[in-house]
Amino acid sequence: MAKKKRSAKKRSVKRPAKKSSRTKGSAKKPAASLDAIARKIVRLTSLPTFGMAELKQLYHEDCTSQEAGGNVDRGIAGLEKKGQRWAQMQTSTTWKATHVWVGPKSICIEWDATVNTRDGRTVKLHEVAVHEIKGGKIQDERFYYDPNALAPPTTA
Predict the structure, then answer these.
(1) How far apart are the C-alpha atoms of 59 and 122, rounded to whole Å?
(2) Domains of the chain and any CATH numbers
(3) How far apart are CA 50 and CA 95, in angstroms?
(4) CA distance linking residue 53 with residue 62, whole number of Å
(5) How far, in Å, CA of 49 to CA of 44, rounded?
(6) What does DSSP say about strands 59-66 and 137-144: parallel, antiparallel, or unpaired?
(7) Which residues, in sequence order, are bridge partners of residue 64?
């Protein structure tokens, strides 16, 4: 028996339109790359006036920040208090990022700083900061440095 030849004409299959996960008016920006976030951290940290606007750009509302001495500040309000403590201790600080490493979910920055303290000293501070990133902002961070470098001199 002879086989029937199929028509060379292709049938068009209607497929349902893909539904967008975004609704009108709620378009989300794509998360920034970790490289871009690292550059932003370096740029904003180097500003002489690092304040609340910069904190909100960089950090999640429920973030944690741990200093080398073990003190942990929580949330934007905690970071603001931390900034106030820092301002009470120094008159100016110059930060220079010497090395920046970017991993799959974290950013590590090696900093050299010159800190002018309120008691008149100029202190060279070497620090390593580890920032864990979630959704394009810092969720958790840890700072590693010698806390004694900033301690007031002891009187004999």
Answers:
(1) 29
(2) 34-149 (3.10.450.50)
(3) 12
(4) 16
(5) 9
(6) parallel
(7) 74, 140
